[in-house]
Structures are given as C-alpha cells and as structure tokens.
Amino acid sequence: MGRYFKNPSFLIGFIIVSLMFMVLLISFFYTPYDVTAMDFSMRLSPPSHEHLLGTDQFGRDILSRLMKGIEVSFLIGITAVISGLFFGLVIGSLSGYFGGHLDDAIMKVIDTLMAFPGVLLAMMLIAVFGNGLTNTILALSIMAIPRFARITRSGYMEYRDSDFVRAERIRGAGSVRIMYLHILPNILSELVATSSLSFASAIMSEAGLSYLGLGMQPPAPSLGIMLSEAQDYMLRSPWYVLIPTITIALLVIAFNLIGDGVQEVNGGER
Amino acid sequence: MRKFLLLVLVLLMLISCSRDGGTSGGSAVAVEKPSIVRLTMPSEPDSLDPYISDASDTEAVMHNVYEGLVLFDEEGRIVPGLAESWQISEDGLVYTFHLRDDVTFHNGDHFDSSDAAYSFSLLSGLSTGTPLSSRFGTVTKIETPDEYTLVLYLSEPNAAFLEGTRIGIIPDGYTDSARNPVGTGPYKFVEYVPSQRIVLERNDEYYDEERKASIERAEFYIMSDESAIVTALQSGQLDMAQVTGADAEILSRNFTIYSNPQNMVCLFAVNNAIEPFNNIKVRQALNYAINKDDIINGAFDGYATRLDSAFSPVMAFYYNPDVENYYSYDPEKAQAFLAEAGYKDGFSFTVTVPSNYSAHVSTAQIIAEALKKVGIDMRIQLVEWGTWLEDVYTNGDYEATVIGLTGKLDPYEILVRYVSNYRRNFFHYESAEYDDLIARAMVESDENVRADLYKEAEMVLTEDAAAVWTCDPNLVIASRPDLKGYKAYPLSFTDLSSLYYEE
To answer: Is the complex ipTM higher than 0.90?
Structure first.
C-alpha cells in the first residue's frame, strides 16, 4: 500500500477524497442548518460567519446543502461502482474465460450499450423508469456495467491460457476456482483503477442529469440541482455558482487522479 | 505530475472566470444620436405570415410591420387602427368598419376595403374552406359596400370578436407573407436570417404622424441565453433587451430598467376533481398556507405583481380589486381549515412541474416548504415540457402543478379556461354560477355591463379557491439610458415607433 502513497497523483486524489468523505460523515449527524429551511430575509447573502458559504435564492444555507449534496454524490458513486463491479465481473469473466458463442453474444450486448454515450443511456433509462433518486441510481448502475465487463473480459482472455492456469487445470481445479481464486487477483489493480474512474463518471452523470431536471428532484440537495439553480445568479452572486462547480470538479479530478495513480504504480499503460 | 499541473490550471481558470463575471462591464459608449436600435427576441420566429404565426415572441416583433383594423393601447383598450371607426349591430352579428383612406402598404399598394376583405376571407376560410383560426370561423359573409367600408356578418354573437380584428391586414391577393411580409405598420420588413436576426426599417410613408417612428433601423437578434444577453448589453452590442430580475439588479448601475406586469397569470393549480382538492376547505387552506410574497421574492427576485384571482391588474378595466388579500397568509387559519375538512394530520401529493421553467420549479420548492409547515407533504416531480403539455394541459391527468398562463387581450380568453365544459379546463373546476356569468358576458354588447360580469366571475373564482394564483411576473427590460420612449403593453409587443434617442 505504501508504494501508492509515494505516487503524487494517488496521494493528492486520496487526500481530496478523504476530506470529502469526512464532510460526508459529518453530514450524517450534523449540518449547520436544515437543508430545505428557507429564510427570505437572508437570500443570496455572501459567505459570512452565520452562513460560511452564503445562502441561495431562498435563503437556504449553501454549506448544509453542499454537505448533503456530497452525500448524494457518494451514495450514487458507491452504488454505481458496486453494481458495475459485480455484474461486470460476472459477465466479463464468463465471457473472457469461456469465449466462443457465449462471448460473442455477451459482447454484442455490451457493445450495443457502449455505443450510446453514457448520459444518453441514463436519460433513456430514466425516460422509461421515471426520475428520482432510486431510478437515477438504477440508471447509473446499469451504465457502469459495460466498462467493467470489458476490462474483466480482456484480463481473463489474457490469462486463461497462461501456464499457471494450465497447471491448475491439470491439478483438477474447477472453473469457478480458477476464475475467481487464481485469475482475479491478477486483474485486481485494473479493476480498482476502473472503479475509481467509474466513480468519477457516476458523479458527473448524476450532476448532469440533475442539472437537466432528470435526476434528483428538488428540493433535494444535489450538486447538479445546486448548479442549475445557481446559474441564474451567476453574475449577481458568483460564489453561489462556483461552490457546486468547484466541488464537482474536485471530486471528479480526485477520483481520476486515484485511478491514474493506481495504474501508474502497477506500470499498466493499458 | 502532468496531471497535477493540469489540475492547477483548471482551478486557475475557474478563478479567473469568476473575476470576469464579477467586474467586467461599463456602459455602452454613446455614439452621436444613433439611428439604429438593437434588441433581442428570445426564440426563432415560427412564421412571418401573420395568419400562420402563433408565437408571442414573433408577434412582439411583427406587430411593428402588420397592423389590424383595430390596435390596442398600453392599458389593453381597443383603439382605431386601419379602421377609423366601427359599428356593431344590436344583436352583435354585424360588424361595420369604416376604413382609413390614406394608407399605403409597404409594397406601394394603396389600402382599401378589398385588402381587408381578402384578409378576412383567408382568416374565415370563406375562400379556402377551412378557417385559419376558430375565432374567425363564425364569419359567414364579407361585404364591401364601398372602397372604404367593410361589413362582417357573424353566425353567433361573440363579444371577443372585435379584439380579434387586431390581426394584420395584408394586400389583396398577396401570397408571399411567409418570406416577404408586407403590412402597413411604422416599420418595413428588410430581412430575416434564420437563427440570427430579423431586420426592420422605418416606413417613411407612414400615415399617422403621431406614431411615425424616429429610429431608422431596428435589428432583433435571436438570443435566449441570459448571460450572453447581459454580456452583449454591457459590451454595447445591444441597446435594449429583456433580462431576468437577478440580472436587472446588476445592470441597473448602467442601464435604465423598466419593470411592468405583463398580463400573465402564474398559479399553483390543483386538480379540483380529485381527493382532497375537491373539498373547498382544503383549497382555501392552501390559499392561506402559501405566502405569495415569498414566491415573488424567491422565484421572481421581487419583479412580479401579486395576484389573488385569475386576472392581472394590468387589464384594469376588467379587474376586480375586491379580490385582493381575500386570503392573506395565515398558516394557523390554514391548519384550522384543514382540520375542518377532516385532514387534521395533513396529506401528501405530487406536484408536476415543467423542468424548463426555473421560476416555476422555484415556486414549487417554496410552496413545498410552506405546506410542510401546515403538515402537508408535497413531492415535486419535474417533467419535460412535452410531457407536461400532454399529461397536465391536454389530458388533465395530474394532482397539482405550477404554471404561468400567457396573457390575452380579451378577458374572455383568460377566464374561459375555468368554464366547466371548456376543452382545456385542466383545473377540472366546475361551477354553474361561473359558467353562467361567462356565458352572459360573451353575448353582452355593453362594455360596462360586460366588465361587471367578468369582475363578478373573478370573485367567484377567488371565493371558490379554484387555484392558488400567485403573481404576474413582470417583464423586465434593460435599456441604454439615452434610449427613451419605451412603452409596456399588456400583450407581447415591442413597440418601436415610440422609441427615440435623447440628444
């Protein structure tokens, strides 16, 4: 693990993510104000002691909303990565290990899914299932699968005929044992890197969808909703639009840095 | 390491962006009495042909080119246009217009009754088979007893018909209106460059000295992006434009700001046919629970005029001031009313809001917060505009919604929306008393009696709490300080003829 922290990309990404994660943990127990409480006498006030990051057009505390917004971003990122990882691993490993017609059939489906730009695919799913938190998570989770499936498949294709796998096969090990005990550890670092990148793109997609009014529904605090509400006041109250913008940018950059760091450390320029 | 540098670069860019947004500006440098005015129009014109066009943005521009038999003034009153005077028969079925004899079309043709007859034969469908608009479908016969008299015969009386005759008159036999509009107005059409601009030029042969234009040329740029408009104003690329309330505050330093109600009705509508909104006590409770001032401040930045019925005060002649503050903000009273209706513990429902209107989305959030205080749980669902039109407006299949209803010049067109059997009565409001008042007003030819009927109808709506009317959002215009003469109309119309540059 130590060698990762010697990598500057990984280190910076890790620090930013840890800080955000701390904010998230705090937000479970404490936010300075209620995230939907309005106070029209305080609307659009600049950062001050009372409101550290100022207030929005309804006089809601931006810091509180930001804290809860980060929580939503992480929730969506984590679920998207877990489901993408799980289904991607199962699909990709079957496809890559066994090959043949099964591989052809699975890859046709995966290629079709990948042919759509990510957000477009999510929009399509939301149009079918309707919007809201659950459906946004569902859509982004489905969206994350193809990438993992691809990476897993190519890893399994690489290792399925290698000497250590042959040796195991001769020893009489079953397919499941070979697939998940012997091959999987070899592609683990790539999966970690992909997870990090998927996390970042899930956060971006959620913000994008919510910005368009397709993801989370107001008054729920989400970085995308905050951004779309703030843009009308871009000239009058620039800090208001900058806060969600910088947060989204930081989160996305941080996760990308972690992903890059992991790949660099493992020397994989795949 | 490269990645890290990139990160620093991105952050620097973000910071520099914020600087630009905050401090750039400076007033337009005034050139010696310019002869051009540059404005905006928010959307692409749907058609330049006045009989096909339906969009108010197009109308706002083309009203400078086309003129009808009647025109309207700043209070929404009908005034003589191409017709100097008119008579309506006792039974309301025969309209006789006496036309002006000194009018020339932009293409040089002289205006007379044959042009008016041609225009109305197209509109009523008498020459083509199908009326272009249902409001002209009742015209059964057009007569031109002499060169400057036009007589229209209707199959049924309709007090709103006269207002309809403000539609533009085109030259006899002219068929190229969509590409090369020809009218009689104070400005001539020059060119339309799709997705860029519409250019108009002063009509030097205009007949009415009082309405003759001062500025030679007008360019309407098709722009909808709010921040682009502000930047264009600040850099002197635009002389006058519609802006948002939030931007008006910044622009007020260097620009003259005009803010006037625009005859639009924004409301929180509930489906009167379903539980619990079929209970009048519940609807009244909603009216008490919502603070309209919060909506005006939070969703419209203070640039709006409070409403308490389905009618904007700009149409002063038909407006009933008694409705004002009929329900004043009082959450305790709201709770009492809810308890009386049997909803002591509140209830929950979903409000369907079109996602493209940020003011309506904001309004919904403010209402949700206000209703939470009286124990009602309102969930917000954003939908696409197309979905809203289909589900809510056309099918009336919804629980509650927030929307703005665009202004019409005739009160009938505004109030008919609440008549039981009206096709688009998406409120599902039903009141025999109301239906009767509107039906009587429709055939009443005495303007004063008619206005009283409408006022009474407005009161009925308020008493029944058919909806929670919130406000009439103001039309906010920023204009360079030396550009004077701006006039606000209760209808989309950018009147160029009154504009002039101060020496």
So the answer is: no
